Amino acid sequence: MKSILVSIVAAVVLVGCTPSTTKPLNKFWFQYNGQQEPGFRLWERDDNGIWTETYPSGHQSKFKEDGIDKVDGLVGDYVVKLSGDIEKTGTQDGGFRVFIPHYQKKESFLYFSQKSSGNWTDWRETNYSIIVLTTRDGGKVEDMPEEIAALLRKQGAKTAEELNTPSRRSQAAGTRAPVLSQKNARPKSFPKTTKELMFGANPTLTDKDKAFLSAAKEGKLDEVKSLLEEGVDIDCYDAYACTALFWAAANNHINTVELLIDKGAYIDAG
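Structure (tokenized):
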């Protein structure tokens, strides 16, 4: 029941937080010019949030979606490496992650981060330009290069046309939204729409607001409780209208989501 609640809240708040011109990716590729097998890297996502990275030789690495983040003003998914020959990839399983910005009709690049002394390093922008093939809503952006399609056909794909068909997420039937009380109503100061925010709103965050948003994003329940007791604005938001509730739901921090809703956090239905 808790997981269903988080899924519903995440879907609702994402509508109001993420700019409407962005779309999560389903399949993309980029040109790699490093030491480990230069050439294309094809990335494909399955319905369980597992990404497969395919090399020109046919070698594959697996990554798992671990949350949603915002880097340099871009909203996107970040994934952590699950498996892949370290001699071929040059990266450690569980110690390497990639930030994949959502599609936004302009050139964007991948970001990398690695574990150092048990902690993740800051996101580092690469020069690997993302060529989007399909988005998660079923949209097709670019055709797959023949070189990549030929390799996948060789691995057992039936036709090149099949390769360009995006996978579709299964739809959960019969799920109802939670019943919200009056305390979850829209705050007067909150932007009416994402467009209104992007073209005029300029939220001023205090240090306490920033600490609150960060704590919710990382699932630090005690810190969230403490800041609420100190009177932090539960509906404070960043430059994309992303609130503490959004960050908690996006990163699957169930207890934090429940606390924020119970305390009256606004759920933006768009």
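The CA atoms of residues 193 and 245 lie 17 Å apart. The longest strand covers residues 60-71.
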